[in-house]
Amino acid sequence: MRILLVEPNARKVEETTRHMEKAGFTVDHVDTGHDALGMLKSYNYDLAVMNVDLPDVDGFEVIRISRAARVPTPVMVLAEEKSATAKVRAFSTGADDYVTRPYESMELTARMQAVIRRSKGYSEPTLRAGHLELCLGSREVSVHGQGVHLTGKEYMILELLLLRKGMVLTKDAFLNHLYGGMDEPEMKIIDVFICKLRKKLQGAGAGQLIATVWGQGYVLRDEAGAMPTPRDRTMAQATTA
């Protein structure tokens, strides 16, 4: 899952990024409100984690503007202020959660995952499609209860497909999710990753879940044999976090 961290303090950036990456998140960082708005409007992040004390634009205003612009990315405020007034202001402008420093890293990770799950319509920490299960907390994948070993990139692809189940994702979307615009390989690498992922799932008994939508990309469906609908095809995404 790709996270946008909005934090002007270099020490806090290092600390927070370390906790997030240890939990398996991919983190992009900006230190101003204007940059945060630009990134939120340009990329489909799974979550934005924001310090509202920014050097240029008040973080609450960043949230308000992004919501007015119909940016769907959920926002978690990570702040020093513990007052009820600050929390009410955050939620009233469109924040999805409010966490105060100092925080326990395990609690932060759990709350991040919970916000992301809720934003995708999941109430449990396990994502499912047919007999396939992916646990966001442990990063374990199983089919019919049997574990399936995936590489880091294969896991990230499957996680993205499950979080956006039923939506057609372009190869550009996968590249952005895996590499975030940094040192991206050729687009055909996505076909290679998908092929290897399909073989592993097929060996476990779930090889028909990932469908190819010719000329657009790939989609994960709940039931084998259920092809994407015309509405699915119109939801192809060129970018994602």
TrEMBL record:
User: Is Transcription one of the keywords UniProt gives this record?
Assistant: yes
UniProt-listed Gene3D superfamilies? 3.40.50.2300, Winged helix-like DNA-binding domain superfamily/Winged helix DNA-binding domain (1.10.10.10)
What are the protein's UniProt keywords?
Answer: DNA-binding, Phosphoprotein, Transcription, Transcription regulation, Two-component regulatory system
Q: What Gene Ontology terms describe where this protein resides (cellular component)?
A: cytosol; protein-DNA complex
Pfam families listed in its UniProt record = Response_reg, Trans_reg_C
Decide whether keyword Ribosomal protein is in the record: no
Name under which the protein is recorded: Response regulator transcription factor
Please report the organism this UniProt entry assigns to the protein: Komagataeibacter rhaeticus
